[in-house]
Design brief:
The chain has helices at 24-61, 75-82, 84-115, 121-129, 136-146, 155-167, 288-291, 318-343, 347-355, 360-371, 373-387, 392-397, 409-418, 424-454; strands at residues 184-188, 191-194, 204-208, 232-239, 263-268, 271-277, 283-287, 295-298. By secondary structure, the protein is of the alpha+beta class. Among the domains are: 83-159 and 317-422, MetI-like fold (Orthogonal Bundle), CATH 1.10.3720.10; 184-302, no CATH class. The strands form two sheets. A five-stranded antiparallel beta sheet has the order 1-2-8-5-6, with no helix packed on it. A three-stranded mixed beta sheet has the order 3-4-7. β5 and β6 (271-277) form a beta hairpin. It is a multi-pass membrane protein.
Length: 455
């Protein structure tokens, strides 16, 4: 009969099911988790003490009144939409949220694309990114000086006034005016005219006051008394003021200066028939065939106030001005991140598009921007979270008279919590509102990052 083969022997080294060695990996896993928990515990304690507890306490405190002893429910939140200063803060935060991140991201994109085409692109990137090394406080002080109203101190108005004066002639004698004893009278609109018509051969005196000697034109010289000249209407326009006193009104004294450059017009029947400007010593002459019998007019252009630029920190422009300072700081941040993304764009795609006949604008709009969309989203979301917390720039740049008009939620949080009329209930409600505004943006950003990681 055929023999049945004996079963193979079980190796002595193989452990039986349920034996002790099989539980060794389980104990190792527990030990690994315990070690991980030990390392995480200090971070979790700090997170709870510095983040979770303050959030919970702020939510609780926002439901109580100023003293913290009376439960008021949602009254503090209702104050955010009923109080004028709080409504202004919410409105300004919306303006910041819409414009500041978009402008900074757009400028960063333009800078990143253009710097790839110039030889000194690295130096340009360095200069644009340098403001990121400056604190918000220092930047606020810098731009507070930039936006000074006085053109001699504020560079923004110095440039603006320079451009304005290039296209619009500035006045030489603002606030100049005649005295009642002078032979001039107001003609409306800021102009002055002679009280009587002028005649050839009879010198005309046109004295004015109201101009500080230090503000006289540099070319002004001591005035010369008018002299009669046949066939000509002559005269002198001068500053009828003697330093130290002692001068005679309506008479040319030795130290009085001529109104150099003053425009003088001869007007007959409402029409200008002749015009001239006073010389350095104030003398002038008009042809008798046109000026004889006319009245002389000093037009208002001689006396209008000098243009002092734009009130950047006034109620109307203070928020755009502060946003401009923010963009100056953060455009470099956007440029660096976008530039890193641009370096990863396949050059073959760009070259293929150019070979197919696409111009540079089409390449930029149809290929570069879509490929940079993930990076642009990161920059935009980061800046949106950042502008919701902006405080330093507004607090430092906006003067006290315009701080209510430039108010934002973070500044109002500070004022409500630590100001002279502090209300911790309202301050806590603003803090909770800021958290609620930031959380959705953060959630969207985290989801987007997870989607990118799964690709």
């Amino acid at each position: 009969m055929p023999r049945t083969p004996a079963p193979a022997a079980t190796p002595a080294s193989a452990p039986a099911p349920g034996s002790a060695p099989a539980r060794a990996p389980l104990r190792t896993g527990h030990r690994s988790r315990a070690v991980a928990a030990g390392f995480l515990l200090p971070a979790l304690v700090l997170l709870g003490a510095l983040v979770v507890y303050p959030i919970g306490y702020s939510v609780q405190r926002s439901l109580f009144d100023r003293s913290g002893g009376t439960f008021v429910g949602l009254d503090n939140y209702l104050a955010l939409v009923t109080d004028d200063s709080l409504r202004t803060a919410v409105r300004n935060n919306v303006i910041w949220l819409v414009f500041a991140p978009a402008v900074a991201t757009a400028l960063g994109l333009v800078f990143a694309v253009l710097t790839e085409r110039v030889r000194w692109g690295t130096a340009f990137k360095l200069v644009v990114f340098m403001p990121m090394a400056i604190s918000m406080l220092a930047s606020g002080i810098i731009f507070r000086l930039v936006y000074e109203q006085d053109p001699d101190r504020g560079i923004a108005n110095a440039v603006w006034v320079g451009v304005h004066d290039t296209f619009a002639e500035s006045s030489g004698f603002p606030r100049a005016r005649p005295l009642p004893v002078h032979p001039l009278k107001a003609a409306g609109g800021g102009a002055f005219v002679t009280k009587e018509p002028v005649r050839a051969g009879e010198p005309v005196r046109l004295p004015l006051i109201g101009v500080a000697p230090g503000q006289m034109p540099e070319e002004a010289r001591p005035a010369r008394a008018p002299e009669a000249a046949p066939g000509t209407v002559t005269g002198t326009a001068w500053l009828d003021f003697t330093r130290g006193g002692g001068g005679r009104p309506n008479a040319v004294d030795g130290t009085e200066l001529g109104l150099a450059g003053l425009r003088i017009e001869a007007v007959r029947d409402g029409k200008v028939v002749a015009a001239t400007t006073a010389k350095a010593d104030g003398t002038f002459a008009l042809p008798a065939d046109r000026a004889d019998g006319a009245v002389l007019r000093l037009p208002a252009s001689n006396f209008r106030e000098q243009y002092n630029g734009v009130e950047w920190l006034g109620p109307t422009l203070v928020t755009p001005a502060v946003i401009g300072a923010y963009v100056w700081m953060w455009a470099g941040f956007a440029m660096v991140l976008i530039g890193a993304g641009l370096a990863a764009v396949p050059r073959e795609l760009l070259e293929a598009a150019r070979v197919d006949g696409a111009n540079e604008w089409q390449v930029f709009r149809r290929i570069t921007v879509p490929l940079l969309a993930p990076v642009l989203a990161v920059v935009l979301v980061t800046l949106m979270i950042n502008v919701l917390k902006v405080f330093d720039l507004v607090f430092v740049i906006a003067p006290g008279s315009a701080q209510d008009d430039a108010n934002v939620l973070a500044l109002q949080l500070y004022r409500s919590s630590f100001g002279t009329d502090a209300d911790l209930g309202v301050g806590s409600a603003i803090a909770v509102l800021l958290l609620l505004l930031v959380v959705p943006v953060m959630v969207l950003n985290v989801r987007r990052l997870r989607r990118e990681a799964r690709r």
